[in-house]
């Protein structure tokens, strides 16, 4: 498959680009919700508009009312989200959540998918335990209790945890913390008794929650996939989240870069446009190269994932790591080339730096994925 | 016992006897720094007492002459003072732009009256100074500044705008570059001092990405500055500014100096992390940081005996600030999602993230990394056309 | 079965039937490459047979028209041919600057007579070409070249000196940039072809740091070149040169393309190394290399449908060559002291070290990294004054 | 102690600088011995001159006829050796060998030191086993045999192995390969029966040997220091070799840099001196910064080593790693900025690149020392 957009994908990209620039722009969304100290960190109105655009259910099966699209298409949306720093529950809900629900029972899908597709329901993912992503180890426990389970433990860095209608939780139903088997995924409704939140605003103004499950009673219908066999579903969710975050990050990098080259073409010092200085030109050209490479490997990994290739897992990690490094360079160069004004809240470039940092951390940073690349490559 | 060792013993027991308990805890954040000035609100009694007892002995500016409020220490004695402060875990009694920047410039360019008046005020923490250099259109290209002082006989009337004036909203006086001759770029600038309460001076804090507002925009609307408040010659303020900037860079670059003994790789074990790739990055960083610390030590040693290349501070500023930015990138990585928190108690209000963002200005303020590299290429490497 | 799949089956069985055993081993070094030409010494019978059987079918230049010695394959068919060659582990039957460089330029700018004559010679491996571009004073700044062709009616008399002429001492003919108008920098250069045995042509190999001498200095002393041996218009040779350089960069940048599946991190286990820091470097490299391979694949896909920015090859050349240099730095590190050996049997005569040194030219030849970045800044980013 | 040269050291530096430039220059030494395919890879005449300058025994005790100088002074010589790419046995003989002999018996010192001081004797160090430096593991064995020992095993990367009058060998006299204890150092004379050499020319034209010890009989007087207690001596030898190689490498970096800035000031392209291009200026200024930092930390580590500081071991590794990285950057930038001519054997810059590579590998590369820094720092 060629590594550029098909006609359909190009059309999708065109409409999403316009929509996100018009409706999801920094002033209208990110700054607005941040400056009004919104407890959700995003706007539900825009989420409705996502639904009207047909984006919320794009990954869901047609039989479930979705568009049965793939990660390439989701990536198109996420890149524009990244470029505009648009706060939205798209990645956790429509990408990771819907991926998880694909393996869920008719009952569970029926319970959650219509709301997602309508832009009324938000999902959050409770995977991480501790400050660094390490899903190989899951200590949060769900013990058999009657016909169901009792969930006990804590999860961190649960984005949209407090605004989500359901939290998808990876819990251990057997074995010890680092076992591959014995993991089960649950869709836990927000109003289940025994859930406690410690919501914190993050550097990028998104809201994450430290969630405690204090003997939360769940009946068997909350299980996604097989009991003890959740690792396979979790891996799909992780791949979806990682390549999604990588796609968003290429958008963040591209947005920061566009802003920076724009500044280079207007700011004057020493009687010259600063973009005339060769040292900055070379750094900008190098950065362009890094961003192009990151964008390419993200598409490659998306295609492999959509095609079910056995190389997908490796290339998703390559893509997540590369996108993180390239985007990190883009925001660092962006702030530096903006000079003093780049340090001010008034300019947007700093917002890109903040978002980059949070996205890098989400679902494993560049070092986490470098380790995976080494291990998957057998060294 | 050598004379210096006797001096050390004396300083050690003096600190022991005089430094209040509260002043022997590490500085946590900017709020713990004693800046002094007319409107300064001391954090506690100890902070005030420590400043005053030091000021009385001249220890706030130990190597300034006694006549100007200092203790007249030799460089070796001043080093002993700093070492003993560090040994006791005692905080500096007073920090200010007056001490770091204006003071050295006045010592070199000021009249005797200016020295006696202003330096004593600085040493006692009575007047807090801010620096009026950059303008919106004149950042790296500082000399293009436009703020103009019109000659009115015994005074100038100053109009214009400054930016990046550190703590202008808290400062009592400003040292300010003002154009006094529009026909000459370099030799048309004067170095003026004036009170921030002079009619026509207004300030507006700039909110930074870190959330803090340590800088202001500062506006001058027909501000009257008496002629005796100039430092150095008329239209030769650029010489004073250059000297001061050099001193600032020297200070910034020296900040990483001294014998650094700690590595940041330990955050791994402190945070309970098992991340071989981050470990490799941290080891690489620690190598660079320990090596740079040695370079800082060498640089200070060379400065003392006049062996450092006069443009060397530019290299040190470049390397030190780039290193510090990298340090905070790594600390953020090691801190993971916790370090992303912006307002939580656990992070003392987002201290890791805010510090990380703050460091991004290191390579911009006081001369960008790009300007530093230009200067090194030109003045040290003597590359053509640089 | 699709038409393409039928074609694939046909190619596969043809290779199976025709490729000699000796030609199915990986190319070890430059000595294994079949360059063709009047004086070429085949390494073995198989090499000669493979070239000839392929040439007879037009497979040495599969996508050239049949009339010019090719097989007239579509891009998709030519890709199948390359894939099937790779699948069989078969070596390319013929490699030459005629195929890579001159051929494409002739296809675009040559007269019908030139195409029929020269392209057929290239396709059959009869004539080996070299490239006369750089001069001692004109490297990156190629257009400043001084070699001059004086107009003598039906011929030029060429005088001057070229440098970096690849294998000039082994080549039969040269395609050469010659100034034919001293009054016009860009529009004063012509693209001439001539026989290296013409009186007045001499070559002198340049010994490289790798110990090899693939390049020469080439001297022209009153060399007579008939007027019909010009490609394109008089004084418009720069257009041909630019096209050819672009094609060269495209080729170099495409060389890293295709679906790369192997990582170099495995040298660790292959060499029995337990070095966590090198492992981290290798993983970082593998990420960059796999990502670049994806970029190469995307670039080739885009070229096929005319979607690539015309200056994109410059970016690809820059990134690919810098990556390859890094690859060899890491291979040297993984090889340790063994990789330092210069003449030992174990290293096949110092192959790792010589290859490592050879890669240092990657970012110089065919346009330096610096020139590539200049072009990207100007033509893609459209930065001012670039 | 201030981190600049004392008056005495400055005088030493002045005389060594002149001597090495005059007598040890690239054309006179490195190219000459390389192009005549000299089997030693260095000139014995120059070694005699080293002796006349008082350099060969500079680290030896005064009682032994030496100058009792330290690593700072040795580093002054090595930096000039590096700057001129001077092939000589100074590092293995006068730095590492003499350091080892300081712990040797009167008999051994009497046997070898006079020849070294006179510039007639050359020592080689047999430490590495395998292609990478890893002295924590020593497999080469010396077993008790009669009054002495029988040495069996192989050593690699023994610089000057074939031209040395004695090889100092780190061998195992008890315990298993990776034990800290049970190592003994021996001074093995070149004519001992059972020594086999496979000499190879390296990329930098130096000669290294793969040495085999095939039951080499040694009497007890060949032992340096205590039997089984050689690790302490070995560590001193390693520190001496590492900081020495680092010092030489700063010289290599400085030499390459001087050559490169010189070229930037003379080569013209596009009607300008290429040193006028800001992109190259910034890279040169960055490189200058790296080289200055490397030079500073090398002096720091030398002083700590001379002062017997407990931080010396850590700082020696920091210095070796930093010098390697900085010098590597210097030669890469050097060749690239020279452009095509940098690739030719005619220009010297390529020789710097070759020497850098060999020095980096000698006594542990940047990664080896990064690992040590991490371990010594407790992480």
Attribute tags:
heterotetramer, A: 379 residues, alpha+beta, Butyryl-Coa Dehydrogenase, subunit A, domain 1, Butyryl-CoA Dehydrogenase, subunit A, domain 2, Butyryl-CoA Dehydrogenase, subunit A, domain 3, 3 domains, four-stranded mixed sheet, four-stranded antiparallel sheet, 11 helices, globular, B: 386 residues, 8 strands, 14% strand, Acyl-CoA_Oxase/DH_mid-dom (chains A, D), acyl-CoA dehydrogenase activity (chains A, D), AcylCoA_DH/ox_N_sf (chains A, D), flavoprotein (chains A, D), FAD (chains A, D)
Model description:
The complex is a heterotetramer, with two copies of chain A (379 residues) and two copies of chain B (386 residues). Chain A is α+β, with helices and mostly antiparallel strands. In chain A, 50% of the residues lie in helices and 16% in strands. Chain A has a four-stranded mixed β-sheet. In chain A, strands 2-3-7-6 form a four-stranded antiparallel β-sheet, with no helix packed on it. Chain A is globular, with a radius of gyration of 21 Å. Helices cover 43% and strands 14% of the residues of chain B. With 386 residues, chain B is α+β, with helices and mostly antiparallel strands. In chain B, the strands form two sheets. A four-stranded mixed β-sheet of chain B has the order 1-4-5-8. Chain B has a four-stranded antiparallel β-sheet with strand order 2-3-7-6, with no helix packed on it. In chain B, helix 6 crosses helix 9, helix 8 packs antiparallel against helix 9 (312-339) and helix 9 (312-339) runs antiparallel to helix 11. Chain B has three domains: 3-95, Butyryl-Coa Dehydrogenase, subunit A, domain 1; 129-236, Butyryl-CoA Dehydrogenase, subunit A, domain 2, CATH 2.40.110; 254-380, Butyryl-CoA Dehydrogenase, subunit A, domain 3 (Up-down Bundle). The longest helix of chain B is centred in the last third of the chain and has 29 residues, at 276-304. Chains in contact: A-B, A-C, A-D, B-C, B-D, C-D. Chains A, D: Belongs to the acyl-CoA dehydrogenase family.
């Amino acid at each position: 498959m060629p590594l550029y957009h098909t006609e359909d994908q190009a059309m999708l990209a065109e409409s999403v680009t316009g929509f996100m620039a018009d409706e999801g722009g920094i002033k209208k969304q990110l700054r607005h919700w941040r400056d009004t100290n919104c407890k959700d960190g995003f706007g539900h109105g825009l989420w409705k508009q996502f639904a009207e655009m047909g984006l919320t259910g794009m990954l869901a099966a047609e039989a479930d009312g979705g568009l049965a699209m793939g990660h390439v298409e989701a990536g198109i949306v996420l890149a524009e989200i990244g470029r505009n720093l648009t706060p939205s529950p798209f990645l956790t809900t429509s990408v990771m959540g819907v991926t998880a629900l694909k393996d869920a029972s008719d009952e569970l899908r029926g319970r959650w998918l219509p709301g997602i597709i309508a832009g009324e329901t938000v999902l959050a993912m409770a995977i991480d335990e501790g400050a660094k992503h390490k899903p190989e180890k899951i200590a949060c426990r769900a013990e058999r209790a009657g016909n169901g389970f009792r969930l006990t433990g804590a999860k961190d860095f649960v984005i949209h945890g407090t605004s989500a209608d359901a939290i998808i939780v990876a819990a251990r139903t057997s074995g010890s913390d680092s076992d591959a088997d014995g993991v089960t995924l649950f869709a836990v409704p927000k109003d289940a008794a025994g859930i406690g939140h410690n919501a914190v605003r993050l550097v990028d103004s998104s809201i994450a929650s430290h969630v405690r499950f204090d003997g939360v009673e769940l009946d068997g219908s909350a299980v996604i996939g097989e009991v003890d066999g959740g690792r396979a579903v979790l891996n799909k969710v992780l791949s979806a989240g990682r390549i999604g975050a990588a796609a968003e990050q290429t958008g963040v990098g591209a947005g920061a870069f566009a802003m920076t080259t724009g500044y280079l073409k207007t700011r004057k010092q020493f009687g010259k446009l600063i973009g005339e200085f060769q040292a900055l030109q070379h750094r900008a050209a190098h950065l362009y190269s890094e961003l192009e490479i990151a964008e390419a490997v993200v598409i490659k990994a998306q295609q492999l994932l959509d095609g079910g290739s056995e190389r997908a897992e490796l290339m998703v990690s390559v893509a997540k790591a590369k996108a993180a490094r390239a985007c990190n360079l883009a925001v660092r160069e962006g702030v530096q080339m903006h000079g003093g004004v780049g340090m001010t809240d008034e300019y947007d470039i700093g917002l890109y730096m903040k978002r980059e940092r949070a996205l890098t951390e989400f679902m494993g940073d560049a070092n986490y994925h470098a380790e995976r690349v080494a291990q998957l490559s057998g060294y | 016992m050598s004379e210096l060792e006797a001096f050390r013993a004396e300083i050690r027991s003096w600190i022991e006897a005089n430094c209040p308990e509260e002043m022997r805890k590490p500085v946590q954040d900017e709020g713990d720094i004693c800046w002094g000035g007319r409107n300064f609100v001391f954090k506690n009694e100890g902070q005030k007492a420590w400043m005053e007892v030091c000021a009385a002995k001249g220890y706030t500016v130990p190597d300034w002459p006694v006549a100007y409020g200092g203790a007249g220490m030799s460089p070796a004695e001043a080093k002993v003072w700093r070492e003993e402060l560090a040994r006791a875990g005692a905080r500096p009694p007073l920090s200010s732009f007056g001490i770091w920047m204006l003071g050295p410039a006045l010592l070199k360019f000021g009249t005797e009256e200016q020295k006696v008046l202003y330096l004593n005020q600085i040493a006692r923490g009575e007047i807090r100074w801010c620096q009026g250099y950059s303008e919106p259109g004149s950042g790296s290209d500082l000399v293009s500044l436009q703020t103009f002082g019109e000659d009115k006989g015994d005074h100038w009337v100053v109009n214009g705008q400054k930016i990046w004036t550190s703590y202008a909203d808290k400062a009592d006086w400003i040292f300010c570059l003002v154009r006094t001759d529009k026909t000459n770029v370099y030799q048309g600038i004067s170095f003026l001092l004036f009170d921030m309460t002079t009619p026509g001076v207004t300030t507006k804090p700039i909110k930074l990405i870190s959330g803090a507002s340590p800088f202001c925009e500062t506006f001058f609307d027909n501000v009257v500055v008496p002629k005796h408040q100039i430092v150095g010659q008329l239209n030769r303020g650029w010489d004073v500014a250059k000297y001061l900037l050099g001193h600032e860079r020297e200070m910034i670059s020296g900040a990483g100096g001294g014998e650094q003994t700690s590595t940041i790789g330990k955050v791994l074990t402190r945070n309970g992390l098992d991340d071989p790739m981050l470990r490799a990055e941290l080891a690489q960083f620690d190598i660079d940081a320990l090596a740079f610390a040695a370079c800082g030590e060498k640089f200070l040693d060379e400065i003392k005996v006049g062996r450092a290349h006069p443009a060397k501070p530019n290299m040190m500023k470049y390397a030190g600030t780039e290193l510090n930015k990298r340090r905070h990138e790594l600390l953020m990585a090691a801190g993971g999602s916790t370090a992303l928190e912006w307002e939580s108690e656990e992070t003392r209000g987002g201290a890791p993230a805010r510090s990380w963002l703050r460091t991004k200005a290191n390579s911009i303020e006081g001369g960008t990394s790009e300007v530093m590299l230009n200067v090194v290429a030109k003045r040290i490497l003597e590359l053509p056309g640089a």
